[in-house]
Write a structure and sequence with these properties.
Blueprint: E1 3-11, E2 14-20, H1 28-39, E3 49-55, E4 63-69, H2 79-91, E5 97-102, E6 105-111, E7 117-121, E8 128-132, E9 135-139, E10 146-150, H3 153-157, H4 159-170, E11 181-189, E12 192-199, E13 204-206, H5 210-224, E14 230-237, E15 240-249, E16 254-262, E17 265-273
Parallel strand pairs: 2-3, 4-5, 10-11, 12-14
Antiparallel strand pairs: 1-2, 1-17, 3-4, 5-6, 6-7, 7-16, 8-9, 9-10, 11-12, 12-13, 14-15, 15-16
Length: 274
């Protein structure tokens, strides 16, 4: 049995187990194997997923990020997790401005003086309308799969119903594989929204979802049909507040220059025996 040092971090309530794999050299298969055990809230550390700082897999980045959902599955990308890993890297010697890779994408990031972190997403999003189980959705895949539906403020508080609907849509035959995150949005003002996200791989509502915040802001702008070329949304989630900004090209119906900004905090550190 060996010891694995970890840090627990959270970004707007989205919580993660963070490991510096430069020290351990764990294979991806081993990381996937231990993730459900580490993320178990009764018998492990507890978390929505695991973040792994890897040596850079290409010469034009500072490091490579591995993220796995609590069940060990591949999330594609995690915005809140990315902010936490950038904060972690900065704490342990990396510059305040960083570049890192996730799969084939390269992300840029900055740690700000107030402790918040911004992640620049190198993706282009073209929203489209979809109807699933007689519910109107907007599909806006902000670096990973997202479906967004709009609801009233009271509906956003009915978490039992949100979980029921989210689970049904997440496993809907028309979005599987790989399934989708399901976002429930209440538009409060032109650029202020409230959000609850049923996360694939966690299989429940989470206190925040970073890519969901970007997707929800894009879907709201798309639904407004205002044509604004730039927007910055305040996204209120159960765990705090996020900022989602982007540029919009009306000619191609494409959203780009996506930036997610929000908190990233250390909670505690410890040793896990594997």
């Amino acid at each position: 049995m060996s010891e694995l040092k970890f840090h627990k971090m959270e970004g707007a309530g989205n919580d993660f187990v963070v490991i510096d794999n430069r020290k351990y050299g764990l294979s991806l298969e081993r990381i996937i194997d231990i993730t459900p055990k580490l993320c178990d809230r009764k018998f492990g550390v507890g978390g929505d997923g695991i973040l792994v700082l890897q040596p850079a897999k290409r010469p034009d980045v500072d490091f490579t990020m591995i993220y796995r959902n609590a069940d060990g599955s591949d999330a594609g990308m995690c915005g809140n997790g990315a902010r936490c890993l950038v904060q972690y890297a900065h704490e342990f010697g990396f510059n305040a401005t960083q570049t890192f890779s996730v799969h084939d994408n390269i992300y840029e990031a900055e740690v700000h003086s107030d402790g918040s972190v911004s992640i620049h997403f190198p993706v282009h999003v073209q929203p489209k309308k979809r109807t699933l189980n007689e519910i109107e959705f907007i599909q806006a895949d902000a670096a990973t799969e997202h479906l967004i539906t709009f609801c009233g403020s009271e509906d956003l508080e009915d978490e039992k119903e949100l979980v029921k609907t989210g689970s049904a849509i997440r496993y809907h035959k028309d979005v599987n594989p790989p399934g989708s995150n399901v976002n429930f949005v209440h538009a409060e003002e032109e650029e202020i929204i409230s959000l609850q996200t049923y996360e694939r791989g966690v299989e429940d509502l989470t206190l925040a979802c970073g890519t969901g915040a970007l997707a929800a802001a894009i879907a709201t702008h798309f639904n407004q049909q205002s044509g604004r070329k730039h927007a910055t949304f305040t996204v209120r989630v159960k765990g705090g507040t996020l900022k989602a900004s982007f540029d919009f090209n009306a000619g191609t119906n494409t959203y780009h220059q996506l930036i997610l900004t929000g908190p990233a905090h250390f909670v505690f550190e410890g040793i896990y025996k594997i």
